[in-house]
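Quick question, first post here. What does this chain look like in 3D?
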Amino acid sequence: MITYNTYYTDAETLNSFIELNNVTNSSNILIQVFTGICEKSYINGLIDNIKSLLPNSVIIGSTTDGEILNDNVSQYKTVLAISVFEKTKLLSFSSNAKENTTQTANSLISKIDKNTDLKLLITFGDGLNINGEKYVRAFENYDNSLVIVGGLAGDNAQFKNTYVFTQDGIVEKGVVAVGLYNPDLIVNTNYSFGWNSIGKYLKITSSKENVVYTINNIPAAKIYEKYLGMDIYNKLPSTGIEFPLIIKKDSMQIARAVVGKNDDDSLVFAGDINEGESVQFGFGNAHEIVANRLKIANDILDKPSESIFVYSCMARKYLLDKSSSVELNPLAQIAPLSGFFTYGEIFHDSKISKNEFLNQTLTTVSISENNISKKIDIDDDYNEEENQTIKALSYLASTSSKELYEVNKNLEQIIDEKTYELRVKNKELLQRYYYDELTGLGNRNLLIKEIADSSSNYSLISLDINRFNNINDLYGVENGDSVLTQFANLLMKIKQHNYCKVYRVSGNEFAILNKKPKDNNYANLVSYFINSIEENNFFINLKKEKIMVDLSVSIGIAYKTRNLIEKAHLALTHAKKENESYKVYQSDLKLEQNIKENIKYTKIIKDAIKNDKVVVYFQPIFRDGIIIKYETLVRIDNNGEILSPFKFLDLAKKNGDYFDLTKIII
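> Answer (accepted):
Ran it through. Tokens below.
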């Protein structure tokens, strides 16, 4: 095979070029068209002119962000790569845009001749409407080993309209491809990246396919403003090409370039970026890119190569500027070289037999129909001394970024360790706050939390073990705790249905919460509880001897009311006072009124003690008409109203004021 590369100006000049190189019309001619003139009328005229001169040729073309002919870089020109094959069959395919990129890809794949001789597929896609990642992934179901190369069309960084086409015309917002069928065709792919990651790792917090909405919970475009400045933000998406996001996949760094900016400050990238992925900003290391030029050239020289095609990212052209030819020059010395600057590159990694969609990358495919390798001494007169400043700054940025990464990594590790410790401690604190350490049951705090939403829809049973202090006094607190644990286990067994939950709310008081009570008739349920408790064998171990302990309970019940815990406890207190087995809270019990009265008279007692309102009466005791002694009577002067001890004396004994009253009287 042989490839003739030329700039296209008009049909007459092209005809002269064809005659000069003795190119004869044949179906084994592949013409790749790389044009920076993004006008439909121009492209249609171009196709017609080529077909008039070489009607049987297979044409595949793309608009560009710059053209490559040998080591020359141009813009707004048209390059033709005319490859004449001897043993290779050529078939072109295309598909207009479907509902999404995957469907577009599948439409094209369905047209591919599944001949086992297919060795290489060169494909171009619309640069603004094709999701390169989705496009490449669609071929995985077809044949992972198939070598696919090419790129997405450009439009000179205008991001308005890009076009791809075949000999049959322009394909609207779709994809085109040409299959090279020859089992003996030698295909070699290579790539050069040269973009370094810089700065802290950022997390993609919201994305869908190739649209990123937020990074670190900040609108994606605003992240560019935050770290790169307002000028970069205002010129997105064009400036986003120069500062891609870099993702690490397996051992390969892959860049994702911005190709669109939406009104909500979300960004459209040339390929997918998954939610949750960690990314860094990338910057082009011009020194590294140029330094890598000979490595690619030597790799290509290791295999036969009759033609080399380059599909390189537009960002490299803007970064290297006049030095772009330096990267291309060694390749152009090996074989005829042509290609274009893309909005995304399609590359086949032969090491793992996988196709990838890339950005910011120079990709090459070299092909040959014969098995003869060339021995070439590459003439390289590039002077690195001219770029020592760029080299130093790139090295500084790279080294600083690595150091920052190590510092952040160490900090993150410390933070992770401390966070884990705090989580463990918080878990322990929450366990202690919400759960009883002895029985493992939820405590009063948990009960309060779980009824906070809608206590008026629940019912609560409070159970108190009668005379439990006697057990502690007789057998010790440790044995008393053993009995409490046995009691808690019994309650867990006898709760009536799945909607019930058992709590230990204080020393020997327990509660059973029912979030879906059916009615307020608790007679049978209470009878069941009491019988189960009385029939259970509670015991304590004293010197290896089991001593049985009889337990009885008092029960208070509150049903579908506010202040559920308080009212169940009031009912329990009333049941104990009245020596009844249980009591259901009812408003006519006047339990709340009693509390209010207790509070009222407690204030009166304390005020009387403090302000000398305790009044002492001496009532004479007569015998045979003679006073033999006096009985001391205590009263309280409540703002002129003399209160008898009936109203306050029992309360004073309970609230601790009885001793102070006694001292006053004495």
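The chain is about 35% helix and 30% strand.
Residues 387-432 form one domain.
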